[in-house]
User: What shape does this take?
Amino acid sequence: MKNNQQNILIIGAGLCGSLLALRMGQRGYNVNVYEMRADLRKTDISAGRSINLAFSDRGNKGMKLVGLEKKVKELCIPMNGRMLHDKDGKTYLSNYSGREHEFINSISRGGLNALLLDEAEKHPNVKIHFNKKCKSVDFENTTALFKDYESKDEFVEDADCIIATDGAGSALRKSYYLGKKFLFSFSQNFLTHGYKELTILPDENGGYKTYKSALHIWPRGEFMVIALPNLDGSFTVTLFLSYDEGEYNFNNLTTPERVTEFFKKEFPDALELMPNLVDDFFENPTAPLGTVKCSPWHYKGNTLLMGDSAHAIVPFYGQGMNASFEDVVEFDAVLEKHEGDWERIFTEFSKTRKKDTDAIADLAIDNFHEMKDHVANPLFQKKRKIEMALENHFPNTYFSKYSLVTFNEDIGYREAMLQGRAQDKAILNMLFDRDINTPYDESNIDELHQILEKIQNETKAVLEDNKNARLD
Ligand code: FAD
Assistant: This one.
């Protein structure tokens, strides 16, 4: 039955839920969204995590789908590359791509979420209910139990289908797990590291205290600090550090003196920009980082998990939100094909999408090591330099792993992972074995072309080996 008058219940009005509500509203469904928090447009609530995010091409596909690309662009600060800070305060800018038009953006979580909520609410068929927490979902009867934080009452809502976009701690996922009504697989893996947000405030004229157009990284092997710019001249800084390992860790940074000592020793140039460090450090929470994988994402045509509730990942590829927005795009395409048959839509969406979200989950873990450690490694830097030159001179032929994942939104994460990992392996092996002679003449196109061919051949061989060993 094709019937847009059907009632869709969405749990969670975060980034994924508000985009999904907007899209389903545009399609004419009756949409009710229940969010446990207060309306972030009216209350000054911290999102509880990452004030700003890296927004890139896959996320932008979602904005194009709902016609919001222009409005979202106004919220964006382009970041062309990583600015690496060594212990002596020396900086080194490493572009994300050799193609000039490829960059990522820093965007405010609250600003973007508010825009999506505003746009969703423009549709009279979309209603968003705040301060209503979902406690559990009866997925066999397609009903959800809520607690109203204002009246303290509990109530049950039913719908033609329920889609949970309620993040990493999803109530629907918990109901699947506890319900034991079908074979539901679930894993949650935490890193030994947690994170804490800090701030570089604007200078006295409201300007940026350090270079605006980059994602700043202070890589220190076992830990790191990163900073992304905000529109008001500040930077949101994130410290990624082990809870209990190493000389300095979250469990033993317990006094202002020790926190200052740690930053003086490891991040002296960052400390200079952060007179507010100690206050931020003790006011802001330390939070864990984990990967959630589960399957299936749906129960028949009744209920579906989407966004972080289905596939929370660690933030090191800057792709969690982008992947969640891409979920909505992929879901919409399947909906277009099979509208009216929820079971078929949910089955096909989960089946095609899961291999890609599993891939970005694994890539994000790889990038944790790359960012805190490898980016400062000379072999890695040589590899990046070669890749930049190849992307610059052969823009239609060569795409690094980072470009495949971040800027090639028409191929899936899994394909990007397989090709990108094989390329990385090929280049690193060849550099190690001196099959690529460095230094080479970057202006000599023939020499670069030979390098490109060698890399392509070696990549093919790696892909072939992986296939034979069934590693792909
Ligand atoms: P969420 O954003 O978590 O939204 C879930 C919503 O559901 C929330 O509003 C919540 O209040 C509500 N909710 C939860 N439980 C209930 C309930 N029981 N009942 C009702 N409502 C409920 N991604 C990027 O793409 N780029 C980045 O640079 C990036 N950086 C990150 C940095 C950090 C430190 C972290 C932790 C994550 C980062 N991410 C990044 C990932 C990104 O934040 C998530 O992937 C994204 O927020 C997922 O959106 P979502 O809507 O699925 O979940």
